[in-house]
Design brief:
- The protein has 281 residues and is mostly helical.
- The protein has a single domain, classed as MetI-like fold.
- Helix content is 75%, strand content 1%.
- It has a two-stranded antiparallel sheet with strand order 1-2.
- A hairpin with a 4-residue loop joins strand 1 (49-50) and strand 2.
Length: 281
């Protein structure tokens, strides 16, 4: 075979593999939209559940998910970015840092239920925070840390070394170089890691099951030490624990959760694309 024929075959194979990945995702999204769109309404989004959660809406669960996502941002992102900057710019290449990086990679692969049990033991019981928004946010933040640290470090290391050399040669300090030269160019990749972590946190059930969520709370939480409902657990509850639940409400809840996660991804993609257009390399 000629080189052109090999390239054509490779292109066809890669396209088929991509289709095998994309087509099921499109099918799942289309199936949820088809079955759940009929349940979506203003009342469904703004009302509280009624009649044993067989009627009404998902407002407490929707707001609870938003509260937990914001709490995860506060708990995880500053620490993750600071750790990534230290590993990429300050830490030497020695056995300790190699072990730290290995530990971060391993932590990213731990099942979420393990984080939930850790949050139960440390935040809920040992620190006596109880089942609360702060305990759930800290647990989700801990679960999000490895993903954000790894992607942020890779984004920082991808910035050309020449940027640092020129900045330092002009009299800037190391922190000034990182602040004004490295971080702005690494920001698109860092945002990608942040959104990946937050998307996972927003859709998790096991960690919040042990640390924050309640089966039914008609009122909104008044402080970070209160329990709350959340969409992932609410979907699990109405699908498995409530007899006679209308199937449209189950698919409607799943569709809203999907929209929340996809919205985070779309916002991140738009920000990343806009920042990459302004990048000078």
């Amino acid at each position: 075979m000629t080189r052109q024929q090999i390239d054509r075959i490779a292109h066809i194979v890669i396209s088929l593999v991509a289709a095998l990945v994309v087509v099921p995702i499109i099918f799942v999204i289309g199936y949820l939209v088809y079955n759940g769109m009929g349940a979506l309404s203003w009342e469904f989004l703004t009302a509280v559940p009624r009649n044993g959660m067989r009627e009404g809406g998902i407002m407490p669960a929707l707001l609870g998910t938003i509260f937990l996502t914001l709490g995860t941002v506060i708990a995880a992102i500053p620490l993750a970015i600071a750790t990534a900057i230290y590993l990429a710019e300050y830490a030497g290449d020695n056995r300790l840092t190699r072990w730290i990086r290995l530990a971060i990679v391993n932590l990213a692969g731990i099942p979420s239920i393990v984080y939930g049990l850790f949050g139960l033991g440390v935040f809920v019981l040992f620190l006596n925070l109880g089942t609360s928004i702060i305990a759930g946010s800290l647990t989700l933040g801990l679960m999000t840390l490895p993903v954000v640290i790894s992607t942020a470090e890779e984004a920082i290391l991808a910035v050309p070394r020449e940027f640092r050399t020129v900045s330092l040669s002009l009299g800037a300090t190391r922190w000034q170089t990182i602040r004004y030269q490295v971080l702005p160019h690494a920001l698109p990749g860092m945002i990608t890691g942040i959104i990946l972590g937050l998307g996972r946190a927003a859709g998790e059930t096991a960690p919040i099951l042990f640390t924050v969520v309640a089966f039914y709370l008609p009122e909104l939480p008044h402080s970070i030490f209160d329990q709350t409902m959340a969409l992932p657990y609410h979907l699990y509850a109405i699908s498995t624990q409530v007899p006679g639940m209308p199937i449209s409400l189950q698919y409607g809840t799943a569709l809203v959760l999907l929209i929340v996660v996809l919205s985070l991804t779309l916002v991140a993609t738009a920000l990343r694309t806009n920042m990459r257009r302004r990048r000078e390399w």
